[in-house]
Amino acid sequence: MRKILFRYLIKEIYPVFFVVTFVFLFIAITTKIMSLTEMVVSHGASALQVLKILFFVIPEVLLFSLPAATLISVLIAFLRLSSDNEIIALKASGIGLYQMMPPVVIFSAAVAVISFFVSMFLVPWGNRNLERILFQLVKTKADIGIKERVFCEPFKDIIFYVNHFSPEQGIMKGVFVVDKRNKNEISSIIAEQAEIASYPKKNIVIFHFAKGTIFTVDKDYNSVRTIEFQTYDLNLNLNKMGKSLLLRKKPKEMGIKELLKEIKREDISKIKHNLAVIELMERFSIPLAVFLMGIIGAPLGMQIKAKTRSVGVGIGLVVFVIYYICLAGAKSICETGIIPPFFGMWIPDIFLFLACIYFIKASEEEKQISFGS
Fold it and tell me: Would you give the DSSP letter of residue 148?
């Protein structure tokens, strides 16, 4: 009887899981394609480069979709059993929630292991290769990271803000640039106009500024120099920048050992330390969230009274959105250090754990949530 029930529940769960995962991936990739179209049309990125970008983005999108897919698949399976009165029949046969949970626990644990593998290995690998592809694009098209009326950092330690930008002509108007490459001083450039000239064979990009002012401040803010100019050239050697960029990994590109070394660095700033800890904790907290999402789906699905599966999808998405908001909020707070990242990054999982207890107890008391007649 147990083997029959196990196979029956698994057959109810896994088809929905694959469908939901595919839908999430499709939506995310479609969204990416829309934004990457501009890179092809305006910036000359090749179709092969776009395909590579999409391929390396998949691991992070997959990690994002697994918690929602796990919750919705289990929720819909038990919602279907509940709406067809099969839950009542099972309870009449002496099979309660706890007897139905083993296949759910095994399924949730299996997906959690997959998400752990994706989080630990595939996401850092994808982010690292994505960084390389984007750098190659920057080498051939320097203007690819510059957007109108947005503070952006297309090159390491160089921040741009432009009021108007024409990618076709490579001309920017109303330009504000902060150059932090020199550790002893910071230069701010304000110019009426700037033009981009790239030399891919030499790996050099030159920004020709016209009619502006340069403000230079030393690192201790003790002295300020002001220089007015009619023309000024800002030269960037992409070979030198590329070596430092590709050698200095970001937390999202690091493995576990690299993150631990980053955290133990004595000369690291507080913000960078917090970012490394946040990334490390997230690698473990998301797989646990996947497992807890699956556990929540069973008692929640048993309590819902609805005739359509869309209700289950909607409720699952609401729970997932609440979790995701908690995760994003925890990351923002932990980054500032208000809450220690070692604790703060587990707050969303604590929320899910408490939700598990609540829904299991509510299911034992046979509380029901009704949607429609």
Answer: B
Single-letter residue type at 51:
L
- How far is it, in rounded angstroms, from Cα 209 to Cα 233? 6
**CA–centroid distance for 162 within its chain:** 27
How confident is the model over 299-348, as pLDDT tens digits?
988 887 766 667 778 888 899 999 999 999 999 999 888 899 999 999 99
Q: Is 0.70 topped by the overall pTM?
A: yes
Residue 177, helix vs strand vs coil = strand
- What spatial distance separates the first Cα and last Cα of the chain, rounded to whole Å? 33
Dist CA 128 CA 121 (whole Å): 11
DSSP string over 295-336: HHHHHHHHHEE-SSHHHHHHHHHHHHHHHHHHHHHHHHHHHH
Q: What pLDDT, in 10s, does the model give residues 46-85? A: 778 778 888 898 999 999 999 999 999 999 999 888 877 7
Residue of 71, 64, 36 whose CA lies nearest to 300: 71
Q: Give the integer Cα–Cα distance in Å for 251 and 335.
A: 13
User: Nearest 5°: phi and psi at 295?
Assistant: -65, -40
The count of other CB atoms within 10 Å of the CB of residue 213 is 14
Tokens 């929905």 -> residue: 16
Strand 171-179 versus strand 158-166 pairing type: antiparallel
- The C-alpha atoms of residue 241 and residue 200 are separated, in whole angstroms, by 14
78 Cβ neighbours under 8 A, 6+ residues apart: 87, 100, 297, 298, 299, 300, 301, 302
Bridging pattern class, strands 304-305 and 224-237 = unpaired
- Tell me the residue type at 194: A
Please answer whether residues 89 and 314 qualify as being in contact, where contact means their C-beta atoms are separated by less than 8 angstroms. no
Q: Would you call 150 exposed, middle or buried from its count of C-beta atoms within 10 A (0-12, 13-18, 19+)? A: exposed
